[in-house]
Amino acid sequence: MTDTDEKKHVVTIDVNGARRIATVEARKLLVHLLRDDLGLTGTHVGCDTSQCGACTVDIDGQAVKSCTVLAVMADGSSITTIEGLAPGGGALHSVQAAFHEHHALQCGFCTPGMIMAVRQLLKQNPIRPKATSVTNSPATSALHRLHQHRARSSIPCLGGATP
Ligand code: FES
Known about the structure:
This protein is of the alpha+beta class. It is about 30% helix and about 15% strand. The chain has helices at about 30-35, 95-100, 110-125, 130-135, 140-145, 150-155, and strands spanning about 10-15, 20-25, 55-60, 60-65, 80. Strand 3 (about 55-60) and strand 4 (about 60-65) form a beta hairpin. The protein is elongated. Mean pLDDT is about 85; it is low at about 140-145. Bound molecules: FE2/S2 (inorganic) cluster (FES).
């Protein structure tokens, strides 16, 4: 069997409020569907081994590393990517604005994934998160690994922000 013989699957997902239909190989990862087939290149691939969180998107209300999900597994899901937070170049999402205000990035490559993870943190802790809850949250594991002190410092100012 060659690659061209591999069976294809139709995947229907809602991405940033728009219905998208794609035909994919069973082995295709969601991150590659988003980036390569749908052109949503704001979701980045850092490690490709579920370590860094750069590929984090929202799937049905949960922050998920999209390199850990096969595209076929996302069939029927509603997905929000970083592009969906400020569609059409509109006003920044409150988390994006806080990152901007606090210069919460180094090179910026992983920042979209961090923002998507922080949205999840705020859903779980809608009251102003304390530094300790930020430090201990699994949703911010990417921040810890990358020693993003500025990113962490931006989160406590987001009390009341819309996730
Ligand atoms: S690319 Fe690093 S966790 Fe997905």
